[in-house]
Amino acid sequence: MTGEFELPFDLDAFLSDAGRGTTKSTCKEDEVIFSQGEAADSIFYISKGKVKLTVLSAQGKEAVVAILGPGDFFGEGCLAGQARRIATAAAMTECSIARLDKAAMIRVLHDAPEFSEKFMAHLLTRNIRVEADLVDQLFNSSEKRLARMLLILANFGKEGKPEPVIAKVSQEMLAEMIGTTRPRVSFFMNKFRRLGLIDYNGHLEVHSSLLNLVLHDDPHINSD
Asked: Model pTM?
């Protein structure tokens, strides 16, 4: 009927009723969802909580390569022929996660155009993020890289209200993610707090004013 109000596509509700090959579960904090080297045979979707992806080198060095939140997919490499997981996924907080085995994912991508659009948007956003990360590493100072990472972790730029960064993100982890040292991160974090760009109050709270550091070359706060 012309003019009929159309409800937005509810991805969480869709995945709860997606049929065989799809399961929903709750993961406890620090619970491993899958490990590097395991068979890659499924895709995951985060309804609630935070998940980190880490990679372990042959020399035993571990690095955090991504922190994901509600609305993100992960493990999608199996759709492109990835036989083994190239990273370990672990819950940073209590998480609600949907798991779709590869066959189920292919089926819903084929049968549900709205779901396909959501998944394609995720892939495009992830690709843009990877390109932006590369540019960030090549051309930006470690101070700007840290500011950008804090904004990403606080969900600035995503739909919905930005949220405080969870306390579980340590300075060591931030240093790994932006390619610098922990003392350098500590120096900039203290500087951001002194300038009123972030607050510590039981958790790390990121203010929108931190965007100015990323978007503008302000000589008052630019260094490195």
From this structure: 0.75
